[in-house]
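Comment thread on ticket #2218

A.B. wrote:
> Attaching the input chain for the structure job we discussed in standup.
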Amino acid sequence: MDIKAELLLRNMAANTEPESVKDTLSRCAAEWLDFDRHPLDLTVNVVTDAELLARAVRLIETGAEKQPKGPVFVISDLHMGDGGPRDNFAYADRERQLTAFLDFVVQRGGRLVICGDLFELWQSNISKVLTHRKWLLDRLAKMQTTYVLGNHDSDLYHFMLQEGWLTHPFFQRMCGSCYLKMGGKTFHFIHGHEADPYCASDVPGLGRITAIYSGLAEDRNGGPMLDKYNTVEQKVIGPMERLVSIWNWLRRKPDRFTEINRNLHDMPQVADVVICGHTHRPGRIGTWHYNPGTWAEHVNSFVFIHEDGTAGVFDWVNGWAVPNPTELPI
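C.D. wrote:
> Ran it. Output below, let me know if you need it in another format.
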């Protein structure tokens, strides 16, 4: 099997010897990828840019001459809960819409990447969420879905290298971020919270606190939606975001969402294209950034990457893929 795996180390200290890091990562890679399935084909490259990333991540790709065929579909921010009043994904017919979309991906011979916040673990019990959504885990595992972790499901992060902790096959393709080469371009898949100062840390901060408060408000409301187009979370978090935007304006900085996009742009360039969600705002910035939006509000969206490396943003509306031409601010 002609498979290469590259592990990029985030926050590597400046005095760390590259060779010692390479030895450590080689050992981790052997355990992670399982040499019984991928014998002798594993190479490990170490990127030593300390400012590049914040965690260890992986890249699994075939050689350029044997790239996997088929388009790539990307979704993000489903925020699946336990089926209770805090579960945005349980509202209306989102489960049916997602099932139809997954059928659409399979029919077109596509591969699926989930760019974080698949689960809502800031407001719900982990075991209850995973057991409630086992039907979906089974389906996604069968599709060999790649699962990039976000901030709302970061509680799963430290299970990635722990053998036997998460035994469902879906979690075998769980990662902090990943890369893919298509049409001569390198695509970098992350969640996007890495560029958001309110949500980047693993330590519970303002982002998680506001999510917990939103959950309490959803309990009182009896569900996550105020009406067809407005969520309880938007009502709760909206004032905070306006305060942040006003504070940024006073400091002559952009609003919060523009700031996140600029932070993404200012990250060291390790790929031609960055695909990430987090903001729940589908759209694109030129040809270097695409955001698949969310499946937790009133419009379900996704990113489509053709085999030739071209990409676009689409809304999924009752079984139809509708182009979304939104240009995001920067």
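A.B. wrote:
> Thanks. Noting for the ticket: The longest strand covers residues 311-317.
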